[in-house]
Amino acid sequence: MNKTFKLTALILTIAAIILSAMFGVFAAQKVSDISFGDNIYVHGLDDATEQVGMINMLLIGVDEGGYRSDTIMLVSIDGYSGRVNILSVPRDTMIKPEGYTTQKINALIGLGREAADAGKISEPEEMLIDEVKSLTGLPVHYFVSVDFDGFKDIIDALDGVDFNVPYDMNYDDPTQNLHIHLKAGMQHLDGQAAHDFVRFRHNNGGSAPGEYVMGDEGREYWQQEFMKELVKQKMKSQYLSKIDDLFKVVKDNVRTNYTMKDLLNHLYLVQQIDVDNIGSYQLPGGSQYISDLWWYIYDPDKTRELVNRVFLPMSKEEWEEYKTTHAEELANSALGFSAISEIKK
Predict the structure, then answer these.
(1) How far does CA 303 lie from the centroid of its chain?
(2) What does the alpha-carbon distance between residue 277 and residue 83 come to, in Å, rounded to a whole number?
(3) What pLDDT, on the 0 to 100 scale, is given for residue 29?
(4) Which run of H or of E encompasses 102?
(5) Where are the alpha helices (DSSP H) in 77-178?
(6) In contact, 55 and 266? CB cutoff 8 Å
(7) Following DSSP, what letter does each residue of 265-285 receive, concatenated?
(8) Which of 154, 171, 208, 276 has the fewest CB atoms within 10 Å, counting from its CB?
(9) DSSP 311
């Protein structure tokens, strides 16, 4: 089993915590004196302004050594329409950074770390942030970089999550002391059970139920479903009293340029979020086997079309018109990636 599963889950949880903390003035006042991780300045990030009405946050999951970013998600919040859209960037995306040979995008954190140590750039995240901006054409205002250490504690600090597990899951790997045994159906997942759910890839013997036959794409689909449910359940006033504990758990596992001042400035935006309309997308493209390696080759034309259609800010009037004319597309995006919609037919 790859640590990617746990990393992705922690990324999704961090995003949910940020959203759950930003839903009222009282909440902002309560956390205003708490440090949210390490406050890092990264060259290349864009300024977020009220005129834009949108903030984009890049969520990065790094491995234990800090040399791979196996989870890369751009979360876009549009304050005018209340839309939240998530764009996943496959870790095998082929890129050609200036001054380097062809690389997979998940190698940029390691290359950035080496460049920062050599004094060529200020922080390890710069190269990855610049590449995501180049691929998507979108601004990136904030980043959150996390490792996988605190996932269970975060879920437990949130009192767990009620989730409808789609399939029976049975997997054992004694070498990692990993034992996943979950029954299908609605249930309350504590930190351990949530950890098991997001790490699941296939059953003993190699059988993969439902969407999991699609490998990474199927797994990412259910991880994003987990995130959506987490956000829906935790954006409630009852979690105000837990904000101190939540930030204490997150603090030791996060690098970010997002501050409490930013949180206060964005209350007007986050209060417009419609948690029932969180769209999930993948960077357009496809996998190819080249020189004995699997690569993800992104499609710039389809990426541009997706960004223009989904990820640009709208006025409330434009959003109401868009909902009417694109009802089917929005329904599909709520289900997950387009390929997932096809396999579920």
Answers:
(1) 18
(2) 6
(3) 47
(4) none
(5) 108-117, 126-136, 151-157
(6) yes
(7) HTHHHHTT--TT-EEEEE-SE
(8) 276
(9) I
Mean pLDDT estimate for the chain: 78
Measured CA to CA, the distance from residue 143 to residue 151 in angstroms comes to 18
CB 28 within 8 Å of CB 240: no
Distance CA 56, CA 257 (A): 12
Element (H, E) at 200: none
What residues does 179 pair with on adjacent strands?
A: 172
Buried b (16+ CB within 10 A) or exposed e, 18-42: bbbbbbeeebbebbeebebbeebeb
Query: Which amino acid would we find at residue 75?
Result: V
Asked if residue 280 lies in contact with residue 337, where contact means CB atoms within 8 angstroms, the answer is: yes
- Which residues, 6 or more positions from 238, have their beta carbon under 8 angstroms from its beta carbon? none
DSSP 309: I
Least confident of 3-7, 151-155, 162-166, 169-173: 3-7
Which residues have a Cβ under 8 Å from the Cβ of 257 and sit 6 or more positions away? Answer: 39, 40, 41, 42, 45, 142, 143
Phi-psi domain of 82 (left: phi exceeds 0; alpha: psi -120 through 50; beta: other): left
Report the alpha-carbon distance of residue 152 to residue 122 in Å, rounded: 32
Q: Could you give all domains of the chain from N- to C-terminal order, each with its CATH number? A: 4-343 (3.40.630.190)
